[in-house]
Structure formats: C-alpha cells, structure tokens
Amino acid sequence: MNLHLTDFNIPVEILKWGDSQPTHQRQHIGTHIDCYNLSNIELPSQIDVKVIDARKIDIIDVNILENLSIKAGSFVIFRTGYLETYGYGSDEYFNSKPSPYLTNELIDRLLDCNVKLIGIDLSGIQHGKDHVAIDKYVENKGAYVIENICNLNKVTTEFKANLKWIQLEGATAIKVEIETI
C-alpha cells in the first residue's frame, strides 16, 4: 500500500502553483520530509511503523502513548483523519486553526524513545508560527517530520515500510515515497 500522495492525488491548481515556485518550495507539495536545517537525511530504506489513531482528538498529548510500546528507530504516524475526510488541497485541510496538533511534551517523549520519523496525515504536526520551529527542533534531535501521509485507513496499526527519497541541494523538504511491505 502506498502512503504517499502522488501527482494524481494532488489538485491541479496546487501542482500549477508548485511549478511556478523555486525547486525547494515545490518539494513541500504532497508527502514530504521537512528538513529546514538542510541536514543530510540518513534513514534506513526499511523501517518499523506504528500508526496511532488520533481521530476526534484536537490536542494530541502524551496520554495517547499510554499502554503503547514505541520501538527505537521507528516511524510513528498519527492518523487524525483530516486527509481522508477533507482531501488534500481543500480549504478545510489547509486551514490550520481547527486542525489537531501534537504537544511539545508528546514530541519530546517520542524523541526520548529515539523514533526516527514522526508522521501525520496533515500539513504539519504543529501549525502557524510553531510549524517550522517544531520541525527544526525535531531535526536538531536527529529525527524528521513527514507530512501529508495518505491511505492510513487501509493499513494495520503496525507494519514495515520501504522509504524512497531524493534530497535536492538547498531544499527544505524532500519528497518521500512510503510503501508498506
């Protein structure tokens, strides 16, 4: 199962906007790894994934990890239901005011567990002025954020995935392909 948006899933007006942007900005369209600090991304090509159901939760805090085991070196994805409910590119999807977000305490707990990737089916794990700051914070801790993950309603809560990406010099985002194994 493919968990990344393809050009087929992305509205034409967003693709047209992307075509008018510098390459580094275009990479923020669709499923991508944020790397605002321009780190050289070094990730395994295969990774253990845990999907956490966070639908109907506005503020996703550390309590969501109760009774869950998080593996070091893994990829933890939060399923808010936003992408499957509203569709990528819709006004509802990109309007961050009502969107769920991860608390700093939760992010720190995940980093303490040595996760490599924190993913979400939204345009960010935090929004507004906090978006870039939290992505940089996670990157400084040796992990990365992946945004706009799709098809979470079609996978189990734990699986292995293949990752493929190409890092362009100077880009603050890296398009990523995520395929279940």
From TrEMBL:
Alphabetized Pfam families for the sequence: Cyclase (PF04199)
A molecular-function term among this protein's GO annotations: arylformamidase activity
Domain of life: Bacteria
InterPro entries (alphabetical): KFase/CYL, KFase_sf
Gene3D superfamilies: Putative cyclase
Gene Ontology biological process terms from the UniProt entry: L-tryptophan catabolic process to kynurenine
Protein name: Cyclase
Source organism: Clostridium sulfidigenes
Lineage, top ranks: Bacteria, Bacillati, Bacillota, Clostridia, Eubacteriales
